[in-house]
Structure formats: C-alpha cells, structure tokens
Amino acid sequence: MTEETQPRWEGKLIAELKGPTPDQAWPFLEDFCNLHKLLPTLNTCHRVEGVLGQPGLVRYVSSTTFGDDSDSSKIKWANERLIMMDPSDKCFSYEVLDNNIGLKSYVATIKVMPMNDGDGKMVGCTIEWSFVSDPVEGWGIQDMRSFFDFCLQSMAKKIEAAIQEPSGLSDCHGIHGRNGEPGCVRYYAGFSLSSEGTNDTGENRPISWSKERLVSVDPLGRNLSYKMVDSNIEFTSYVSMVRIVPSDGDGEGGCTIEWSFAVDPVQGWMLEDLVRKYEAGLQGMAKKMEDSFGN
Length: 295
Known about the structure:
Layout lengths: L8 E10 L3 H9 L13 E6 L8 E7 L10 E12 L4 E9 L6 E11 L5 E12 L7 H24 L4 E8 L8 E7 L15 E12 L4 E9 L6 E9 L8 E9 L7 H24 L1
Antiparallel strand pairs: 1-7, 2-3, 3-4, 4-5, 5-6, 6-7, 8-9, 9-10, 10-11, 11-12, 12-13
C-alpha cells in the first residue's frame, strides 16, 4: 500500500501602504539580513554566509517564545537562503533550510507593487507575500496564513512609519558586499532639504535616496572615500572623502573631521547651498559623536 501524499499548502497575503511608493518601500525589504528591524517578534537576524543581495545568501532568524530567552528550548530558529533577488521588479524569493519549527519545505516570494486609485493614480503600494509549504505537524493551513499575515501587516506598518518619520535620515543600511570592505554599497534615504536649508514638513515631503559605494578605507590613516552610484537627487557624479585628523601631535587635544567632495553641478543648486547642507550634516555627526563619548 502506498502512503497517501498530503497536498502542499499555498497562500498569498497582501498588505497596503497608503502613501509610500514602491521605490520607497523596496529598500527595506531588499535588506535581507535585517528582518528583525521590521519584525519586533524576532530576536535576531544576521548573515550566515554569502554576499548581500546575491542568490545563495543565507540568513539566520530566531524568535523567543513565551518571552524567556534564557531557555534555549524555547527559541525558534531557521536558516533561510535567498533564491532570487530582482531589484527592477522589486521582488525576491527565499527558502527555509535547517529549522526547529517543523518546516520540511517552504519557499516564499515577496513582491512590492504600485497601488492605484480608481482613476489610475498611484496612491501607495502593496506588499505581496506568497508561499508554498509542506504541511506542518500541529498546524493547519489557516494557522500558517494567519501567522504570516500578522508578520506582513507588522512589517508594512513599520515600513510606513519609517518612511513618514519626520527626522532627516529615515534609513541607511548595507545592500551589497561586506561591511567595511571596498565595494560594499549602502542605501541612504532621508527627507529632502531645500536649497534654502529648510525641511518641507508637509504631507507630501519627497524622499531623497542614494546608493553609495565604498571606494577605499584606511584604518591607519583614519580615512575613507565613497562615490554615489545611483540616486534620485540629480547627482550625475559625486565622490567624497572623510578623514579624521588629530588636533595636535598625539591626539590628546581632540580631533577634527574633514569632509571633502567633488561633484558635477546639480540643477537648481549653487555650490554654496551644497556646502551649507553638508556642513550642517557634518556638525550634526560631530555633535552626536561628542555626546556619545561624554556619556
């Protein structure tokens, strides 16, 4: 007698983000190894092996049940491997590998799509989470759908809140390469600062974003350089160097941070406007560092 094969479970869940565009929401999901920033139920999420953004990348995720992380038997964990990442179509797929949550086979696809009103005007975006899984002992398919829907809605609220955060910088995270090594790329996003130096506090504040590649880093010389490789802020070419210089010979008297840059002219801006913008950013960074050392 042959053993009866149970049908696989399949599901598709959707969350709506009113206001944020797919371009604004995608970078949060593209950051495959920082899922814990979007899901408060996760204790940790980190890279195990592979290159950020590339198929074969494996992340480890864990969650503590009943709020007791001192008992390892109550920690639920899984290793998940990135199968496909398509930034142009704003989607990725992954599969669950080793785990202690009873998943024998599980593959999911996450996709970000525009959301339009009745007149065809884009009013936000949707996140679609589809999955195929073998049945899990002790669960029903509706249990799985409810759990993943809770996760998806929580992620959507977190992304929405981050995009609407009124402070200047809303996000900065690695999207490619190894942190601290030349070639690594970070995604940086914040609300636009006008050339008059004031933030637009209206509901339709534009998000400015850029992708920046580390060109060189010299720990001994205390300097690094990077270049902008993609953005929506009309920079056709931008290269910058940041350097820390002791105020005296041995550094006991403090230090200075030098931020130099070379950029092609930017439409609608004067050089003085750009210098003033970066000067404000540099002074803010220096103040945060001083406050951190003083605590």
